[in-house]
Amino acid sequence: MSGGVDSAVAAARAVEAGYDVTGVHMALSANPKSYRTGARGCCTLEDSRDARRAADVIGIPFYVWDLAERFDRDVVEDFVAEYAAGRTPNPCLRCNEKIKFAALLDRALALGFDAVCTGHYAQVADGVLRRGVDEGKDQSYVLAVCTREQLRHAIFPLGGTTKAEIRREAERRGLRVADKPDSHDICFIADGDTRAFLAGRLGSAKGEIVDEEGRVVGEHEGAYGFTVGQRKGLRIGTPAPDGKPRYVLDISPVTNTVRVGPREALDVHEIRGEGLVGLEGPLPARCQVQLRAHGSVHDCEPAVSGGVLRLRLLTPAQGVAPGQAAVLYDGDTVLGSATISSAAPVA
Questions:
Q1: What pLDDT does 237 receive?
Q2: How many CA atoms lie within 13 A of 203 on its CB side?
Q3: Which residues does the annotated region (Interaction with tRNA) include (predicted)?
Q4: Which of 233, 335, 290, 313 is nearest to 90 (CA)?
Q5: 308, 343 in Cβ contact below 8 A?
Q6: Where do the CATH 2.40.30.10 domains begin and end in the chain?
Q7: Is the terminal CB of the chain with fewer CB neighbours within 10 Å at N or C?
Q8: Which residues define the annotated binding site for ATP?
């Protein structure tokens, strides 16, 4: 129970369905005051109190489990290391993979529970993950790193409901979190300034910003502060010859160089992915791929060989960065996922 409306209603529905439910709030920081609060939080003291009050209304036992050390190692440190390596991670996806459906689930099963029930907007049946019916809230993308075995022990009571319906239901149930704003951005970056957070962990590392021809057009304080597809915050003093905006095309942590260019240079048609989850069996000749949470879906032709996923996109995608997840779908059904290792324009 995160302290938000979704997990509160999920718990209430699980009770109504006849399950023996215990509410658990994950304490993910040794210093919760350093995490986001109010409309932007999800792991704070305020959220813990909201979760406890919701459990009291529902009438279930409630506990706080300290997973701060595991969260710092598997999510926060991973986040920093990925940016330092020139990749763009998704910490919410990593939290699902390493914390909610690994550390939390493992402890729950060891204590005799059968499943972890969460407020995610997704559906699962017989270990197969599907999109939630609310297209704007669907969270199947960030759950696609879960294995079929983990999904066998997962319950998502909200998958067939819209967010608006959940808020109305919470109000009917007398849950004070009915109107609580959703959490946004990264919970462990209190002020939302990712670049400053990384600079505090990695220090300043001046380098060059170059154009497609390798000409120096600016300087930066650390290549880790950029991501492929980024337009704002480049602070380039030299305008492009055609006067059009520049975008980050590539990041090289070895040379500490950021390469920029026109928007059309971001187009990619081929993607390579590693760290496959759920893609062991034969794949359809064509399917769809989603490359970021709530991002566009692209038709593609997939192939797996030697533990590597290769995708040929039938329509180009932009802003594809190593470290992001490529999640494959057949309609609303999740086929599996891979971590993007490289992307290239059409040959």
A1: 75
A2: 1
A3: 137-139
A4: 290
A5: no
A6: 267-344
A7: C
A8: 26, 119
Assign domain 204-265 to a CATH class: mainly beta
Please tell me the predicted confidence (pLDDT) of residue 256: 94
User: Where in the chain is CATH 3.40.50.620?
Assistant: 5-179
Q: Which residues are catalytic?
A: 95, 187
Identify the helix (H) or strand (E) that includes residue 299: strand 297-305
Q: Which of 330, 327, 338 has its CA nearest to residue 304?
A: 338
User: Are 322 and 88 contacting, i.e. CB atoms less than 8 angstroms apart?
Assistant: yes
Enumerate helices (H) and strands (E) in the chain, giving the number of each.
10, 16
Per-residue burial over 264-300, b if 16 or more Cβ lie within 10 Å, else e, is ebbebbbbbbeebbbbeeebeeebbbbbbbeeeebeb
Task: Quickly list DSSP for 235-287.
Answer: --SSPPTT----EEEEEETTTTEEEEE-GGGG-EEEEEEEEEES--S---SSE
CA 296 to chain centre: 15
Looking at residue 228, its pLDDT comes to 94
Cα separation, 75 vs 303, whole angstroms: 30
CB 94 within 8 A of CB 79: yes
Exposure letters 93-128 (e unless 16+ CB within 10 A, then b):
bbbbbbbbbbbbbeebeeeebeebbbbbbbbbeeee
pLDDT for the residue numbered 31: 66
Buried b (16+ CB within 10 A) or exposed e, 226-250: bbbbbeeebebeeeeeeeeebbbbb
pLDDT at 242: 86
Q: What confidence score (pLDDT) does residue 156 get?
A: 98
What average pLDDT values come out for the chain (347 residues) when binned by 10 residues?
96 98 91 51 78 97 95 95 94 94 96 97 93 96 95 97 97 95 80 89 94 92 93 84 90 94 94 93 93 93 94 94 96 97 79
Query: What is this structure's pTM?
Result: 0.92
pLDDT at 347: 52
Residues annotated within the binding site are 26, 119
The pair of structure tokens assigned to 176 is: 């004070």
